[in-house]
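**User:** You know discrete backbone vocabularies at least as well as I do. Would you mind producing a protein record, from residues through to fold? Write it directly below this note and I will take it from there.

**Assistant:**
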Amino acid sequence: MTGALLAVKLKEKRHGARTVLRDIAFEVGPSEIVALLGTSGCGKSTLLRTIAGLDTQYTGEIRHDAGRTGFVFQEPRLMPWLSVADNVGFPLGHAQGGHPRVAALLEEVGLSHAANYFPKQLSGGMAQRAAIARALVSQPDLLLLDEPFSALDVLTKGRLHRLVRDLIQRHRIGAVFVTHDPDEALALSTRVLVMPSEPGPFLERLDVDGAGTDSERLALRERILSALAAHGESVPC
């Protein structure tokens, strides 16, 4: 892919004597959202941490042409003693809640009214929106998301899916996110990569942007479940 922000050619990743990832290759370009979908324990989060540079023990190549990388965790991980604005502005330095970029992002994620709130005053969805704004405040070219919607109710999750897609398109950044939910992968991503439970290449590579109708997306869902079932995987709920 010309102009890729991220190119992964990972030959092997081991934990001690155990191989956890093998023969993983893909690229991410601007405005692309790539879902890493698989069952628990298949190495999704390990792959994301390796891409983020949090784990450097592997063979192969991971090339970042992105200038900066933002990370959204499964929990918001807001600092309880800081206001929402100061939490969002924290990557810019101490007490940067008044930075113009913070105000702009709080507006984008619908939290302008909560700038002076503290984390204990936020709902789960509000806290995760603050975490997303914090990940974007340093103006990353690549965004990594590790199952950040798994603890949210269905309606809140749907709203955040739309928000994240809109932000990624608007800022023209690339994104990789981890999920075990086929419906979430199809709702949020432009491409789905299905991971096996045993180390090896992706079971499926699916272009979601090309599926414009409900029936086409249903067909993609069936391909995901069939790929998992054909390789003896337990099917995610």
Notes: Residues 14 and 20 are 5 Å apart (CA to CA).
